[in-house]
Amino acid sequence: MSVPGSPRPDGVPTGPPGEPTLGVSDSSPDEGLVEDLMVEDKAVELLAEGLLSHYLPDLQRSKQALQELTQNQVVLLDTLEQEISKFKECHSMLDINALFTEAKHYHAKLVNIRKDMLMLHEKTSKLKKRALKLQQKRQKEELEREQQREREFEREKQLTAKPAHRP
User: Fold this and answer.
1) pLDDT, mean of residues 105-131
2) Is 23 left (phi over 0), alpha (psi -120 to 50) or beta?
3) pTM of the full predicted structure?
4) What separation in angstroms does the CA of 88 have from each of 54, 78, 85, 95, 102?
5) 157 by DSSP, 3-state: which?
6) Which of 7, 83, 111, 156 has a CA 20 to 30 Å removed from the CA of 126?
7) What share of the chain is helix, strand, coil (3-state, %, to 5)?
8) Alpha-carbon span 22 to 96, nearest angstrom
């Protein structure tokens, strides 16, 4: 049997024999609810404070560590951007060096072309002088031949017999 006032194994309180026992359904719905809420509010507050006091330092340390990591990431990103810009500068320097090498090559070609043009100019000048001399020599030879023909013609004219004019 059960002892008066002690709960039964199923959890329902029992009263003295012969007296009716109050069950959950027998009590007023508002009775004890306010007390339970006050106790529950206090318990919730205490539990929340305990939970916060237990986890808040770790969370704050984690927050601080995350902030430091974020700052480090920002610094790393800035450093990476600087390195990328240096790399681009080096790459552009290689391009500039290639351009200078190409410019030297074309400059050498231009110098060779200029030498060739000067040489051709000298040769053409010499050829023009030679052609002028040859033309002058031909003209002189032709003039001399013409003069020689005229002399021969005059001489033949003088050598041909002339009829004498008698008076």
Assistant:
1) 97
2) beta
3) 0.40
4) 52, 15, 5, 10, 21
5) helix
6) 111
7) 80, 0, 20
8) 99
